Amino acid sequence: MPYFETNDHSSLYYRDWGQGAPVVFINSIVLSGAMWEYQMLPLCDQGLRCIALDRRGHGRSDDPGRGYDMNTLADDIAQLLEHLDLNEVTLIGQSMGCAEVSRYLGRHGTSRLARVALIGTVTPCLLRSEDNPEGAPREIFEAHVAAQLADRPHYNRMVAIDDYFGLASRWPEQEFISAEMKQWLVRLVLETSPRANIECFRALWLDDFRQDMQAFNVPTLIIHGALDHNAPLLCAQRTARAIKGSQLKIYEDAAHALYLTHKDRLNEDLLTFIRS
Fold it and tell me: Along the chain (276 residues), what's the average pLDDT of each consecutive run of 10 residues?
């Protein structure tokens, strides 16, 4: 069965499809590895081995009620790569997954990696402080937490649909985002443990990944939507400046859910990057 046990005895689920060079996907907050369906199937058909981890408290993985800090989540990635004995890995994150990927590099280095892709990244540091004036004020973080504690289904429906797809009426791709696709996304969100939801949100906002940026010494591709409401384009621009030699691709008509709305373009860019 595609499970492995972590050092704290949590059982984590992963999808492992195809054969060839390994590509490991790290999902967005409150979404499981199932979110990568429209990347994994096409890339498997291109001769790649695609693996997606269900973060603890997400999808089919255990909900241990602990370990939602970034260090533990990064260590979970390390244990997955060790469990499968993967090398020359392309490690791909989306949104919060980019923060976990960054912390993985900061804690474990790049000895198992060939390259990294960050999609809709929230790095390098979200919260405004004296030495991070470009961050968002704490009041915004506190308002998001309060909204989730008051009515998590409503909050996540708003984020997963209204904000996640952004200014969808301006996209030609909008006709391909069906009501059923949106319902599927909301269902994946609400399958996530409420404790994991809140604690991961806190970890994402309150941690600082600027030091981790220095650990990126493999080819790094950053892809971001110019219309992203969940992670402003400034996040990608700051991350690109912090990672020496990285490449930034901006999708001018995309928001945060570009892995769905712009899946064909994204898959082509990822495949080109992996084969470069």
Answer: 92 98 96 97 98 98 96 98 98 98 98 98 96 93 91 80 61 62 88 95 95 98 94 97 98 93 96 96
The residue behind tokens 């000895």 is: 111
Domains annotated on the chain, with CATH: 3-275 (3.40.50.1820)
Is the distance from CB of 126 to CB of 207 less than 8 angstroms?
no
pTM of structure: 0.94
Measure Cα distances from 216 to 99, 107, 246 in Å.
Answer: 13, 11, 9
**Kind of pairing between the strands at 21-26 and 89-94:** parallel
Cβ partners under 8 Å of residue 120, min gap 6:
28, 94, 95, 98, 223, 224, 225, 228, 230, 231, 236, 256, 258, 259
First to last CA, the chain: 33
Give the residue numbers annotated as catalytic, written as ranges.
Answer: 95, 228, 256
Torsion of CA 216, 35, 123, 82, to 10 degrees: -40
How do the residues of the chain divide into helix, strand and coil, expressed in percent and rounded to 5?
A: 45, 20, 35
| CB 71, CB 30: distance < 8 Å | no
Check the CA dihedral 226-30-259-239 and report its sign.
positive
**141-177 CB burial, b ≥16 within 10 A, e <16:** beebeeebeeebeebbbebbbeebbbebeebebeeeb
Both tokens assigned to 85 = 């004995």
CB 107 within 8 A of CB 160: no
